[in-house]
């Protein structure tokens, strides 16, 4: 006897934000706890995930009055940064989330297997409400975010290599601070220090980790705190405003050329400074890659 095909339900939302930022907000636990609910009387107090094929996730969803709650759990199948993530839920149902880059906007489409306990209409309305809440969350921090891009007449592999390689990194980041460099590596999950000499000659800078690294395609940096006087400061009032903020690089193949996109989730008090420095830094990277 043939198995009855599962009913698919689709919801979508067009979000006024670059795909780099939309992808990060959809998949980062720090963001998930801020938008993962269908109504104001529910919330998502905790979220954990391993964003890679075979990695698991668990998002706690509870009524704010504590009357009920459940863990939304599953395992990721495909993870293609800025494009697609698919997963299997704990009950065996599948879901696919697609991200379509529309330039200054992003179309997010979620298709999932319906369950049998609730009507299709109720399920569609619930998932759409969560997606609408996600849209509201992402568009809510756009006033503080930054987007830069540049077209480079060089293949993606060359741009990717020279943007991250130690010697060339020191060159193009001079636009931010003469003597800038990093300690660590770009492997996913690795801690990395972005450093430079201060007025007193002592090195200082930022503590971060590589949240994602897909060769020739995507890099996401999560800022964790400050570095100074030989110490890492990752908690307290000095770092509250930017701890967890991401900086994301996307490399788009234009057939021998590269469109490099840079998104910073927040510039905070340094936003005006970054808006002046990033174009100069990208122009220098372009010159290095095209030389």
Q: What's the CATH superfamily of the largest domain, by name?
A: START domain
Q: What would CATH call the architecture of the largest domain?
A: 2-Layer Sandwich
Strand fraction: 35-45%
Largest sheet: 8 strands, antiparallel
Count every helix, treating DSSP H or I runs of 4 or more residues as helices.
6
Distance between the termini: 65 Å
Uncertain segments are none
Can you walk through the features of this model?
- The chain is α+β, with helices and mostly antiparallel strands and 291 residues long.
- It has two domains: 136 residues, START domain (Alpha-D-Glucose-1,6-Bisphosphate, Chain A, domain 4), CATH 3.30.530.20; 145 residues, 2-Layer Sandwich (Alpha-D-Glucose-1,6-Bisphosphate, Chain A, domain 4).
- The protein contains six helices and 15 strands.
- Strands 8, 9, 10, 11, 12, 13, 14 and 15 form an eight-stranded antiparallel sheet that branches. Strands 1-7-6-5-4-3-2 form a seven-stranded antiparallel sheet.
- Helix 5 packs across helix 6.
- The protein is globular.
- The mean pLDDT is 93.
How would you summarize what this structure contains?
The protein has 291 residues and is an alpha+beta fold.
What layout of secondary structure does this protein have?
Layout: E1 8-15, H1 19-27, H2 29-35, E2 42-49, E3 56-63, E4 69-80, E5 84-89, E6 94-101, E7 106-113, H3 120-140, E8 146-152, H4 156-164, H5 166-172, E9 181-184, E10 191-197, E11 203-214, E12 218-228, E13 231-233, E14 246-253, E15 258-264, H6 271-290
Antiparallel strand pairs: 1-7, 2-3, 3-4, 4-5, 5-6, 6-7, 8-15, 9-10, 10-11, 11-12, 12-13, 12-14, 14-15
Helix pairs in contact: 1-2, 4-6, 5-6
